[in-house]
């Protein structure tokens, strides 16, 4: 029978995995408590950055159907469980790692897809959801304006033709 405290910890981790849209695994060796607090503040309301026990996390991930962390749970590990925009969290982690090279991003998962370190960096390079939605809205408005011009062209051509015929009849 498993230790009840460990079983409770696995259940808590499983719940964090199920409630998050993404998770990013990091190694925080060499970071001070103040630096970890700063990191937690930087990910803000978009994620829960938690120091985890490797073995219990591997068990919880397997039971949750997540294979992204297999073989990566070594050393002092922490996971950012993302509940908001994954791009914002990835950017926060990237920016913090630039200032504090002790933070190592090992990988993660998003929407059931495994991300390696390069995948998390690519995610951080994306523009935020709001910017992408704004670009999409601008493109759709542009398409609608072009469509309106196409539909309006035959009508205006007909008006010009009728006006030219009227002017020709008046002249004759």
Automatic annotation (TrEMBL):
Gene3D superfamilies: 3.30.70.1730, 6.10.250.290. Forms part of the ribosomal stalk, playing a central role in the interaction of the ribosome with GTP-bound translation factors. It comes from the Bacteria. HAMAP family: Ribosomal_uL10. GO terms for biological process: translation. The gene is rplJ. It holds the Pfam family Ribosomal_L10. This is Large ribosomal subunit protein uL10. The lineage of its organism: Bacteria, Bacillati, Actinomycetota, Actinomycetes, Micrococcales. GO terms for molecular function: large ribosomal subunit rRNA binding; structural constituent of ribosome. Part of the ribosomal stalk of the 50S ribosomal subunit. The N-terminus interacts with L11 and the large rRNA to form the base of the stalk. The C-terminus forms an elongated spine to which L12 dimers bind in a sequential fashion forming a multimeric L10(L12)X complex. The keyword rRNA-binding applies. InterPro entries: Ribosomal_uL10, Ribosomal_uL10-like_sf, Ribosomal_uL10_bac, Ribosomal_uL10_bac_type, Ribosomal_uL10_CS_bac. GO terms for cellular component: large ribosomal subunit. Keywords: Ribonucleoprotein, Ribosomal protein, RNA-binding, rRNA-binding. Belongs to the universal ribosomal protein uL10 family.
């Amino acid at each position: 029978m498993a230790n009840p405290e460990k079983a409770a910890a696995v259940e808590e981790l499983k719940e964090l995995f199920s409630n998050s849209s993404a998770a990013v695994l990091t190694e925080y060796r060499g970071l001070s408590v103040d630096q970890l607090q700063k990191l937690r503040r930087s990910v803000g309301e978009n994620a829960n950055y938690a120091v985890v026990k490797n073995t219990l996390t591997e068990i919880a991930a397997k039971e949750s159907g997540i294979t992204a962390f297999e073989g990566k749970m070594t050393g002092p590990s922490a996971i950012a469980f993302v509940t908001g925009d994954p791009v914002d969290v990835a950017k926060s982690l990237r920016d913090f790692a630039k200032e504090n090279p002790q933070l190592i991003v090992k990988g993660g998962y998003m929407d059931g897809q495994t991300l390696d370190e390069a995948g998390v960096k690519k995610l951080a390079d994306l523009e935020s959801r709001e910017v992408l939605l704004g670009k999409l809205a601008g493109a759709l408005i542009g398409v609608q304006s072009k469509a309106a011009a196409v539909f309006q062209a035959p009508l205006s051509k007909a008006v010009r033709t009728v006006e030219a015929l009227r002017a020709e009849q008046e002249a004759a």
